[in-house]
Amino acid sequence: METLFATDHTRALLPRIREFVQTELYPLETSDYLTGKFSNVAKILDEKRELVKKLGLWGLQWGEDEGGLGLTLCEFGQVSEVLASSPFGHYTFGTQAPDIGNMELLHRFASPGLQHRFLEPLKEGRIRSCFSMTEPDFAGSNPVNLGTTAVRDGDEYVINGRKWFTSSADGATFAVVMAVTNPEAAPHRRASQIIVPTDTPGFTLVRNISIMGDASDHWASHAEVTYENCRVPIDNLIGAEGMGFQLAQERLGPGRIHHCMRWIGIAERAFDLMCRRAVSRDMGDGQMLGHKQFVQGWIADSRAEIDACRLLVLRTARSIDERSAANARNEVSEIKFYVAAMLGRVLDRAIQAHGAAGLTDDLVLSFWFRHERAARIYDGADEVHKTALARSILKEYGLDVRKGVKV
Ligand SMILES: Cc1cc2nc3c(=O)[nH]c(=O)nc-3n(C[C@H](O)[C@H](O)[C@H](O)COP(=O)(O)OP(=O)(O)OC[C@H]3O[C@@H](n4cnc5c(N)ncnc54)[C@H](O)[C@@H]3O)c2cc1C
Q1: Which ligand 1 atom sits closest to the C-alpha of 163?
Q2: Helix 329-354 vs helix 365-372: angle between axes, to the nearest 10 degrees?
Q3: Tens digits of residue pLDDT in 163-206
Q4: What CATH number does the domain located at 246-406 have?
Q5: pLDDT at residue 1 greater than cutoff 70
Q6: H-helix segments, 94-222
Q7: Which CATH superfamily is domain 8-123 in?
Q8: Is 166 in the pocket of ligand 1 (CB under 6 A)?
């Protein structure tokens, strides 16, 4: 769909990407691949990745200084929407989370030595990575509250802690670990981000956590991980000591645009399946499903909601492009909870329109319904973003909620 935000780049790229996704990836949406382990599909996706490289469509997120097209975040968001219409799109084009966030992080903040060792093979898709911040014993919604420590011992850090929901740890070559290095500092200056290769003694992948009946493996997994006296060189520090939260914020601003545009891509596909069902399901009473007003309501509501969300997200992406992620914080909060909720509604309607078929793994809808409930929790639960947005608005009206008194 041509948007208000179309550019020469998007006009040239999107039809090519759309065609690839539809012809090469949609046929893989069978129950073998949608319900089995991700490793079942990884081999064929590796072949598709080679095709993407041959077509010159790999690394679309890279800046010009990295040999890429230098797409703006607003342009890349539109690419992300098209890739997301298949569960395999982002992985096949090398733009999948958490690697895309780690690539951005290493590109901007890692030393040349770390970039050579970890960033280059990551960009080429030869290795994978993970981001290890959330802990089972501490509320992730308050990220200054971490139990994992990294204590300096000579020219090494010794890391101890327990993490979970370290997505894609299974088979990853390294983890970016958030650990407390400066316990006496102010809360937001206590933690640092450190690279831990997963073959470091003391790194243990305890389990791939089963989520809604599906533990999967490989890239599509979420692991519990322990760090027990893991020793890594102090050179594995990203940025400076105490910069962990700042780096996490830098990573999350653009990351939330990626997620939101991915959700819009999923919602758009669910909408398409719902409309196809509406015109093809004969209700046996001389009417098709689409003759029913309830269904017309789902279609109209979904169309308006997806379009509104796309405009909001691309406006936010443009704000980040023009003013930085820090300055677009309110807009980012707004889209994070608003788009996640829209996705849940549209997927639910599309499943309902398919009746029992919507629940089967013959269609991609149930896969997304299982996997995308998480949208309202990760990268900040809905309530955290709503609270942050409302507080900021109230402050403009003279009420500082944090202080509990009028300013
Ligand atoms: C699929 C998935 C993938 C993930 N991938 C990663 C990853 O790769 N790396 C990583 O480090 N982490 C990852 N996470 C973890 C994620 O970032 C955390 O789950 C999230 O930050 C919430 O933390 P928590 O689960 O500890 O919930 P808690 O902090 O315990 O919060 C529980 C609930 O309390 C409510 N709540 C929280 N704060 C407030 C508030 N201020 N006001 C009102 N209500 C509130 C919310 O409803 C929230 O859902 C992933 C999570 C999921 C589900």
Answers
A1: 11
A2: 140
A3: 999 999 999 999 999 999 999 999 999 999 999 999 999 999 99
A4: 1.20.140.10
A5: no
A6: 99-109, 112-114, 120-123
A7: Acyl-CoA dehydrogenase/oxidase, N-terminal domain (1.10.540.10)
A8: yes
